[in-house]
Amino acid sequence: MEISHSTIRQIGDYRLVNPEIAGGEIAIRLHYQMLRLRRLEEALRDEYHPADEMRCPIHFCIGQEAVPAALSLLLSTEDFLFSHHRSHGYYFAKGAPLNELFAEIYGRKTGASGGLAGSQDISHPSSNFYSGAILSGAVSIATGAAFGFQLQKKPQISVTGFGEGATDEGAFWEAVNHAGAKKLPLLFVVENNRYATFSDQLKRQNSDNICERVEAFGVRSKKIFGNDAPLVWQTLKDEISRLRNDDGPALVEAYTYRLNSHVGPEDDGINNYRTQEEMEFWKRNCPIRLLQEKLVATGLLNEKLIAEAEETIAQEVANCFDFAKSSSFPKVSDWRALNFNGNSPCADAFLAEENSAIFNPAQSEAKLAPY
User: Which of these, 209, 249, 252, 248, lies nearest to 228 by C-alpha position?
Assistant: First the structure.
């Protein structure tokens, strides 16, 4: 069956999840990672109001846990991961400290970005993770990083995760063109959740299938049902392996769905941009539920193990809240220093050389002579 948002809805209840694709141990780890991500996002959502202590907008990824969970088991410490504004899942995927994620959202100096970036622009350099609010901006940066790895013959790969809305931007297609032309070690991961804010993809684009379009640029592509966690893991594993063997770039389009609002904990259903029936379909086919049912049915999981996992995760989340709320706020004496750095020796050297050439024409001509 050709995968699209329309054909997925025709499935009814998805029955094709097969834990053996990944193997029992990996399937259990996938379930645990998805459950961790779901519970931390739900906790942040539930705590956002009425306390109003998180003073930044948050784009939750509830319902979209399969891709981050799979990446968390596949990426190495040296690999770079670049994310759009719905950043928590990708931060999680790179193994960056969760207590620093919470502290950043609370604006504390112990946060991943010193409490100064918030959710949309959070980064963790020591984990090689970076996100950004500019639509498709992270795609461009990921392409530059991959080009750098190639030039320096480094073994790392670059991965960029984003929604289908990013493909509305010209920067995305420029990145795809450059990646295909240079055969960069770059993996594009599109979490196609159908809506950019409140706008249906088919009201913005002629087709909801991005794969065929990127292949014209020399980028290998594959589309999958993004809530089938073992399938997501196997697909990403195969593509990452090919990238490490200089057989890139590639794009994986994972059809999934956010169960939360576009931004914030409030219900954005008042905008009437999606139906209750549609949301109920995706709740029945959420990635955690689909995998958990199969794991229980095959005896790889049981209620006792699930309860133990829930208890461990609940304690982890509580510790993150304690860490964030007990941390102090940052003190910034000069806000200009957050936007630019006056210490720029490289630029100063170029300027000095340029000024010298302007005031010493003979020297300038001598430099140009060989060319």
Answer: 252
